[in-house]
Structures are given as C-alpha cells and as structure tokens.
Amino acid sequence: MQLPILFRAGLIALPIVLAAQGHARAEAGAPAAPAATRRIAPIPDAAGLMDQNGRPLTEAAFAGRIRLVYFGYTHCPDSCPTALATVTQALDRLPPEIARRIVPILVAADPARDDARVLGAYLEAFHPGFVAVTGPVAAIDDLAWSYGALILRHPDEGAAGYAVDHSTDLHLVGPAGDLIARLPYAIGPDALAERLRASAGAAAMPREGPR
C-alpha cells in the first residue's frame, strides 16, 4: 500500500523539522538531539504519562523487555491501523515465551483527543499485549524527540477534525533502552516476527564477564 501524501510529506520533512526543533531547543538551553539516536531517554517518574487504563507510566514498566514502539493516533486513516495489525499478526506468530518478552507500544501522537479511554477502546481491535502511552503534549513531544520521531499537528483543519503528520516507522528498542532498529510500517508480519524473534534471542544471550 502506498503512503498517503500526508505521511509521505511528513517523512520527507523530518530532517528539516528535527533540525528546526533542535535549533529551538538549543536556544532554550536544551541540548540538540544527536544525528542518530542511539539510546532512548528513560521516562521520568514525574512525566505525567499514563497507559490506556489510566495507570501512571514510568521507565520501570518496561524494565527488561523489548519495546516495539509506534507513534500514531486513533483518527489515522491507514498507516496506524496497518502498523498495529502487522504487530498483532507478528506477535501471534511467536511462541508465548518469546512474545511475553516484547511489549508493543502505541504512543499517542494526538493526546488531546486520544486520552486513556479512547486508546483503550481503540486497542481492543489489536493484540492484548499493547500498551498505550498518553498524557501531556509536552511529555509526548519529549518522548518523540528521544526517538527522533516526527509529530506535526494541524489543529485548524475545519469541523471534520484535524490531521497529524507523524513518522510511520516502528522503533525496536532493547531491554537496556538502546535503539536497535527503525522498521518500516509496511514490513510484513512474517519478517517482523523473525526480527522480533532474533532480537529476543540476542537479548537473552548471557554476556561474558571479564576473563
């Protein structure tokens, strides 16, 4: 399926947008993001983020697990449901002992409309292991910045609602918080399942100590 113009435009603009955001943050005294994100910043305890059940979310919720993170919103016409359906099918292809080590995450790119209740109802159509992340816009944007993900909201699109430009990659993050890979949302379920299986296997390998 071809990316709609909205998302293709957003993806093309990503380097420009991130550069502009970096300039603004630098002027505000915040360090600019690195060209390639290597380590995802931990979620602060006081960030105000919550899951689809309204429970507070901190870094401890994901300790020791592999994260498969997607930034999207419930009014998204095609790329979001496609990505979440692919993740669901991929996890269903994995043995339970491997699937339990992986947490699929939907981060609300549109938290103003996608509160915990809305996200909970939306995720009923997908894998039961999904965790939603919503909360203050600033906290969501900081999380997106850590991942190098694009979010552009257009709140003046008329009575029919508004659109949100966002990166469509799936972000694969290791148990230690290292960004392993960015995977295209159009990846097939079989290919994604094999990538998750390999990542889970690598994370489970014991590390050699000093000799």
Automatic annotation (TrEMBL):
<dbReference type="InterPro" id="IPR003782">
    <property type="entry name" value="SCO1/SenC"/>
</dbReference>
<comment type="similarity">
    <text>Belongs to the SCO1/2 family.</text>
</comment>
<feature type="binding site">
    <location>
        <position position="80"/>
    </location>
    <ligand>
        <name>Cu cation</name>
    </ligand>
</feature>
<feature type="binding site">
    <location>
        <position position="166"/>
    </location>
    <ligand>
        <name>Cu cation</name>
    </ligand>
</feature>
<keyword id="KW-1015">Disulfide bond</keyword>
<dbReference type="GO" id="GO:0046872">
    <property type="term" value="F:metal ion binding"/>
</dbReference>
<dbReference type="Pfam" id="PF02630">
    <property type="entry name" value="SCO1-SenC"/>
</dbReference>
<feature type="domain" description="Thioredoxin">
    <location>
        <begin position="37"/>
        <end position="201"/>
    </location>
</feature>
<protein>
    <submittedName>
        <fullName>SCO family protein</fullName>
    </submittedName>
</protein>
<feature type="binding site">
    <location>
        <position position="76"/>
    </location>
    <ligand>
        <name>Cu cation</name>
    </ligand>
</feature>
<dbReference type="InterPro" id="IPR036249">
    <property type="entry name" value="Thioredoxin-like_sf"/>
</dbReference>
<feature type="disulfide bond" description="Redox-active">
    <location>
        <begin position="76"/>
        <end position="80"/>
    </location>
</feature>
<keyword id="KW-0186">Copper</keyword>
<keyword id="KW-0732">Signal</keyword>
<feature type="signal peptide">
    <location>
        <begin position="1"/>
        <end position="19"/>
    </location>
</feature>
<keyword id="KW-0479">Metal-binding</keyword>
<dbReference type="InterPro" id="IPR013766">
    <property type="entry name" value="Thioredoxin_domain"/>
</dbReference>
